[in-house]
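Something for you to look into today, if you have time. Could you write out one complete protein record for me, on any chain you like? Leave the record below and I will have a look.
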Amino acid sequence: MTRSIGAGLAPARAARPIQAGERIHVVGVAGAGASAAAILAARAGADVTGCDPGGPSPYTEAVAAAGIPIAWSHDAAHVSVSPAPDRLAVTKALTALEPDHPELAAAREAGIAVESWQQVIADAAVDRTLIGVAGTHGKSTTSGWLVHVLVSAGVDPSAFVGALLPARLTDGVPATARSGAGQTFVVEADEYAGNFDAYHPEIVVLTSAEWDHPDVFADADAVVGAFVSWLREAPDAAVIVANGADPGVQAVLDRLGPRAGSIVRYALLEEGAAAPDGIRAEITGRIVAETPEETTLELAGLDGPGSNVPVTLATAGRHNAANALAVAGAARAAGIETAAILRGLATFQGVGRRLERKGEAGGVVVYDDYAHHPTAIRETLRAIRQREPGRPVWAVYEPLTYHRTAALLDGFADVLATADAVAIADIWAGRDPDTTVTSARALADATAARRPGMTAVAPGSVEATAHWLSRAVHGGDAVLVMGGGRSYRIAELLLETLTTEDRR
């Protein structure tokens, strides 16, 4: 099933500067992207308000710290105030479910523009050098890592990243937005339903292209087509930093064809092996050493053909090694010197909910990650085994949307079965209201069928899953919580319970 998302929103337009005193109301402000739009608009001089009936989230502390009032409800009265908003910035998650939502309908009736929050971020980036980080996987880590490299190099960028940046990068509380005085603006550019259409970057990073979002993309070819269409709207001289080892990215480049701007390919290769046939890359890396705390890369080509330097990353996993190459290529395209790039690569500590170690209690170590696609889950499970060698690994997953879970159920079951035990929380519906197509129990059963005898359960809600786990895990276990929605609460609640029990 595919459907149209964003009904009733104004189409993406050419970015224009945000005016001082412009009134912008952000609907769904507790989300990762909408919160960033609110913060960046306020920093640009707009008079910003927000609303969200879901209550506080990990992103709203930064909104409040920016002095932006938040109403914890949707209400048409937010539009009828005086003076009225000049525009509403809205998440497509709302329009997907309620295109005629009263607050949006009131704005249209009053002649107030209703736009995506991505348009607000694009407007905040006017007259900056825009770097767009796109791809099915790795966008948040890559964009956050690039921000870290640029800050370390003294560039002072602005940014929107779809995961919490640490306070040391935001000069305050952790946030998905950074407002800097420099010329460079990094933005995470998401392909879902044309979310990236408002962005026209001078430097593009393309990490991967794989079928996801079955509610808007019928197949992998449709995903490739979306990236191609977006790239064709980039400035003629735009530099594309592309993962030459990803088949989907290669399909995008093949269909894109000749263009005026340059293409810089990067690829993570196997140690001691030549590049496989068909892979061409100017920047390559090979993992030459791994420890629980670090991954050492041999990085070639950053300073041109024949150059070769080692760099030790404070991260785990092959996917993060590939992300590091993407960051290196983008930073080089932005004019950052090699020494500063290497320093930034080596000192990056990660962003929120990306293999984030939440704590340890009762001998059980708990990690939290946003992985919600079979490929991402596979790589994250591999990474936690590097981080926590010898520990039995629990894969705890809150699936994100019913149709994604149904369409990719076999792939989810295959990768989850590589863990030592599995717990599946209730599916987070989000923008997908059809609860009939599959269930958490169906995924747990499919996982158990891959490895008869393994524990694979579906305890229920996020709260019920955390409670069940607190009785099932043992000292020495590693628990990897994954998913969108409210899955982060599983990690928090589990640690709270284990800590309380540990202190008795």
